[in-house]
Amino acid sequence: MADEINKDHIEEIKSEHIEEEIIQHLNNPVTNLKPIVKEYLTDVKKVKKEGNKFYFSDGNAKVEVRVVSDEIIRVRLAPHGVFLDDFSYAVPQVDQKVTTFSLKENDDDYTISTNTVTCKVNKADFLISFSDNLTGLEMSKDASAMHWEENVEFGGYYVYATKECLPEENFFGLGDKSGNMNLRGRKFQNWNTDAYSFGWDQDPLYRTIPFYIGVHEAAAYGIFFDNTFRSYFDFGKENYEKTSFWADGGELQYYYIHGPHMMDVVKRYQTLTGTHQLPPKWALGFHQCRWSYYPEKKVREIAEGFRQRQIPCDAIYLDIDYMDGYRCFTWNKKYFPDPKKMIKDLANIGMKTVVMIDPGIKVDDNYWVFKEGKENNYFCRRSDDYFMEGHVWPGRCQFPDFTNPTVREWWGGLYKELIDLGVAGFWNDMNEPAVFGAGTFPNDVRHNYDGYRGSHRKAHNIYGMQMVRSTYDGLKKLMRNKRPFTITRAGYSGVQRYACVWTGDNVATWEHLKLGNIQCQRMSISGVPFVGTDIGGFSGEPDGELFTRWIQLGTFSPFMRAHSAGDTSEREPWSFGEPFTSINRKFIELRYQLMPYIYSVFWEHHRYGFPILRPLAMLEQEYVSNHYRQDEFTFGDKILVCPVLEQGATSRLVYLPKGQWYNFWTHELLNGENEYDVQAPLEDMPLFVRAGSVVPEYPVMQYVGEKPIDEVWLNIYYAGYEVNSFMFEDHGDTFAYEQDIYLEKKFSVKGDGKNLVIQQVIEGLYTPNYELYDYNVIGLPFEVSKIFVDDKEITEFNIDDRKRLRFKSNKNFMHIKVIGA
Ligand code: MIG
């Protein structure tokens, strides 16, 4: 009986697909040798258990279900029973800690249960589903059995998974995508692409992050389809009731990641693919870039321009023109006769130098990098053994095979000279890889793929990530215990372990400002949190207003860098005159004032996997209306940002999530779960602080580390209930934090209308240089009579002109009580 039902089901699906395939196939000269038929898993005939892996077979194909952790389950398909090599650039280690799991056979299905999730495999039709043990809610369910199709040209299979898409289900993530935050009703493709001046909804872009989050009935789950081939996702577009993902080759292999909160899903995804290292603190300052600043005189003029105008800045970038004929690791001596001296002079005024390195190596027998690569056979080759050659900036180029560990090691070492010259950061561009004319490499280029071999079809999407990995690993060795700073354009899931990213060649339009806001949030919840846009827009000309609004958004972008193409007008924060210069300065200063908060948020990401930017959809996934709201986000947990994205706006609507929020500028206290029309003149982007927060603050500095910190300001936002905050501190540029040389200070703030209690718990081994905290208590609803610090009364306090309670204490206090009159 069961078998019969199953047969009908399969026949139905097959006929549906065959028709569509035959049409495709008739138009394809390569594949019309043989009819293409999608094959589906049929029914479960055999089951076998091996440790944390369960094998199900229909007599021909095999499926592996592997319990990775209590909340993560991996599924793999082997169309003819043989699994591919279990190797992934994204997931260095698959197995995590599992409490307990079990397999049960029922009449109609098998169930594999951990403490939290149950994976069900239906006997009759091989449909797989995942549900929450506690609520019984089915989170994700196959709509048809996993299927595949032979690839006659290259061998292997096109692989497909199709899940049910519930009517109220919405989708998020997928990393580097353009357009709206909510992915429902759209179809995407992953193929790393140099997408100069990309548009709203253009796809694909520079990076491949095949990870999405689904939310329905207020619960979330994630799917990570770890496949590096060209891949596709359809969120109910072709068929409103189906979500599917497929790839042009490789293995159908995906991780089901349990929620129920979106935040849980992201954190768990991050346990698979890793988090970003703690960046050197200076990398969190403002950076100024341009294609290109040269010659040396210009670079100095810009750097000094920041100091003269007292606009903070930590880094200046040298784009491709610093090189000799675009040869990587060389200098154009006409423009830069003495790079060492220039870099040192810049360093003396607190300005770090970041330089670009591209993957294309000029074919030139007098160029040492080319010679070394050629002699050692480090460059990529075509299937018939010719070198992969293409034109990029230097002219005719060959390209290192970064998927070869030996090549990565070599390339990482090439940075030595630049490090010796004092270069502080490295920017890897064009690593999709981009080739003029052709776009990228042809499919037949061969790659080492860390010994697992592959054509460019398989290696394309991870080429850029392996390039920047080689850069990062090389720098880590060369810089001993100092944290490298690297930035990459292309990447794949896991790229966050090696670099920060920028969104590529955007455009100086209001639409792009809006898009950039969404892109950064989306990258952040897709596991790549250290991200920013080219402030001001790469191509085109912003006016003063657009530039200033972009600086405001950029102040709350994890990576804050202004950049522009060479054929545009000057694009420094002072290029637009007043009032813009002053407003730009005010926001860049704010970035530096908030540095201890921003740095703490990065720590929270690094250590615990929290995203840095959190969209409203994540903050309140239970309100479906928030699934469509994409302007507001929080930076960390405490600061809510709502950029102004309309030309000429002087106010805008802002939705505040649950809880109470203080207007950062006016200190007005507002209730969440409401929408407000907030004043937003050009000098004030709407910003809110969660009531009960402790937001640490530094004095304004022109660059990170300019001044010794004598005391840290603690801005305490009163709440009539208890709220926890934390602050992270360490050296700021070493890996000593890996040996616990850091401080994690946990604050709790609790008001009851008459008193305010502040507590601090300090963990870790680092000792900061300052002794004092200087408090600004905002929103205190009572008159102060007494203040006790660790039970000792202090008498020096006052209320300042902004109605803030001001006093100081030793930084090691444990308990403060502010008592009302
Ligand atoms: O073909 O290095 O996205 O940021 O300024 C253009 C020159 C190459 C593209 C990058 C852009 C950079 C530019 N690069």
TrEMBL record:
Gene Ontology terms, MF aspect: carbohydrate binding; hydrolase activity, hydrolyzing O-glycosyl compounds
Segments forming domain DUF5110: 714-777
Keyword terms, alphabetized: Glycosidase, Hydrolase
Residue stretches making up the Glycoside hydrolase family 31 N-terminal domain: 63-234
Residue ranges of every copy of the Glycoside hydrolase family 31 TIM barrel domain listed in the record: 277-600
Protein name per UniProt: Alpha-glucosidase
Any Pfam family hit: DUF5110
Domain Glycosyl hydrolase family 31 C-terminal residue range list: 609-695
Alphabetical list of SUPFAM superfamilies matching this protein: (Trans)glycosidases, Galactose mutarotase-like, Glycosyl hydrolase domain
The family this protein is said to belong to: Belongs to the glycosyl hydrolase 31 family.
UniProt cross-references to Gene3D superfamilies, sorted A to Z: Glycosidases, glycosyl hydrolase (family 31), Golgi alpha-mannosidase II
Classification via PROSITE patterns: GLYCOSYL_HYDROL_F31_1
InterPro entries: DUF5110, Gal_mutarotase_sf_dom, GH, Glyco_hydro_31_AS, Glyco_hydro_31_C, Glyco_hydro_31_N_dom, Glyco_hydro_31_TIM, Glyco_hydro_b
GO biological process: one example: carbohydrate metabolic process
